[in-house]
Each structure stands twice: as C-alpha cells, then as structure tokens.
Amino acid sequence: MKKISFLIAAHNEERIIGKTLKNLLNLPYKDYEVIIGLDGCTDKTESIVRDFVKRSRKFKYYNLNLRSGKPAVIDNIIKKASGEIIVINDADWIFKVDNEIKLKKFFSFFDNEKIGGIAEPFPVEWDKNKLKNSNLGYKIVAYGTYYWIKFQKKKFTYKKNDLLYLKEPTMFLTNIFRKEFYKKYFSLGDDFERTKDIFDKGYKIILLEDETMPRMISAYNNIKIKDLLKQKIRTAIARKQLNQSNIMRINLFNYYFPSILFIFSESWKRNLYAGFITTIWIIITALGELISKFKKVDTKKGWTLRAKR
Questions:
Q1: How many CA atoms lie less than 13 Å away from 254 in the CB half-sphere?
Q2: Alpha-carbon gap, residue 88 to 119, rounded angstroms
C-alpha cells in the first residue's frame, strides 16, 4: 500500500474545517497523513486544527502567513509530505469514502506506473443528499458544473476497461497525483496546469465514473450568488492566464460554443428544472467572463475572490 498525504490550505475556515478534518480522522486506510497549512488565520481555525493534531498523530499543521493563495501554501507544506500520492483536499471539501474495499481499490490504480493522476469526475457539489437540503446557488453550481464536466468527458476522454482516460487535458482538474509530478504553479488554474503537466510527461490521467467510489464532495450546502459570480470571475482570469502563457489554447469555436450548446441541450433534456437552473449557470459564467476582461488581477489578489464559509 502506498502512503497518502492529504494537504489542506486554510485561511479563516472555522465554520467548516472541523467537518473536513473529522472525515479524515478515521479513514479505513493504514498509511496516510494529513498536513494543514494555516495561512494567516485570524479566527478559531488554528484552535480547531490543534485539537485534531492532539487526537491523532496522523495530523500535522504549520502556521504560515503567506497570504498568496492556496498554491503558495501547498508549495510550502508539500515539502513536509512523506506520501507517494498527494491528495489536495480543500478546506471545505470532504473526501467521501463508502468503505475500505473501495478506498483500497481507488488508490490501487496507482499500482499501474503509467497512471500519474486521477481527475475529478463530478463536481464536488454533485451529492444527492446535499442537493436535497441546499439553496438555489448550490443547485445552480451542482447542475451547471455537472453538465460542463459531462461535456468534457464526452469530447476529451476515451473508455478502456471501465475507466475513462484523458485524450487531452483541456480543463480537467487533477488534485490526486504522484508526488514526483508536483511542480510549483503561478496561475489561478494550478489544478488545470497540473493535468496538462502530467499528461505532457506521457503519463495517464484517469476518471472514475462510479459515483460510489471515493471522491471529493462539498462540506457546505449553501452558495451565495455573489460568491458564485466571484468564482466565475476567478476562473475566467485563470483561463486567461493559461491562454496567455500557452499552457492551454481554447477558443470560441473549439470549446466555448460546443460546450454551451451541449450543456444547454443536455440539461433541458433532463427536465425543466435542471434546464432552468443550468441556464442561470451559463448566464453567470458568461457574466463572470465579461467582468474579468475589465479586471487587472494577479494571482495573489485573484485568490481573494473566494467564498467566505
């Protein structure tokens, strides 16, 4: 069994980080560690984290004051990680595991030396229990992102032995990967960059379509529309950074128009409700793209465009 290192960057997460850490406290896996980087917290986050460190030797934390965003924190704490496999676990995500058998199977994919990472196959908001008790903003994100990822899977992956493999990286997010492939990134799209970097090295990136396999889900069930718009502005800035640096080349005709048509048609096929709220997601995404063109924001400031949990 390979050792797993969960890395968490946290800034003022007192309302939510307890759920994230409690989930990692007793994973049915022998060899893992949880490393938390505190980035200038001014609330009770450190106190909550310290309590988990006292409860388990698997937990460690480092008090940083970088205030340059998640990638800067990860770059610092990954140097202290001893695991062969890295899992970047956002402070408001829960690594959902149904049972020990599925968890061991999940990480056993890395026994294949050609597999470099596992990309996110569903939105973290795509969870049936959360959808039942969530607000409109959450549902908009869940459905819109679900069909966006579904478009990418249809267009940019191929199936082999019940696994999806990337044909090209585009905008897949890879937060579970071999530590040897870690590289410091400077854009707001570090998880997009990582996907391309691993892919360009000649290694495979897979996605698991079985929703019962371990995956990240949200620790929250409410999203404010203003926070959703901020996220879309940040994502648009990230795409612009990646395009300008030639890391990613996507345009209206090879990506945006086909994706919008697919998302719109597939959501309305599902039912009127899915179609309606997904259309709102498309509109907010387009608005975020428009606003981003008038914002001169670097990576450090871009990470302030985040939801406050």
A1: 7
A2: 11
On whether the CB atoms of residues 137 and 277 are closer than 8 A, the answer is: no
C-alpha–C-alpha distance, residues 196 and 277, integer Å: 31
Cα–Cα distance for residue pair 194/112, rounded to 1 Å = 19
Nearest to 172 by CA among 242, 111, 90: 242
CA distances from 2 to 110, 116, 196, 202 (A): 8, 14, 24, 22
CB 235 within 8 A of CB 288: yes
d(CA 288, CA 305) in angstroms, rounded, equals 12
Task: Report the SS3 class of residue 298.
Answer: coil
First to last CA, the chain: 35
Residue with token string 């450090």: 300
Cross-strand pairs, 227: none
For the entire predicted model, the pTM comes to 0.93
Query: Residues 87-116: pLDDT tens digits?
Result: 999 999 999 999 999 999 999 999 999 999
Q: pLDDT digit string (tens) for 137-154?
A: 999 999 999 999 999 999
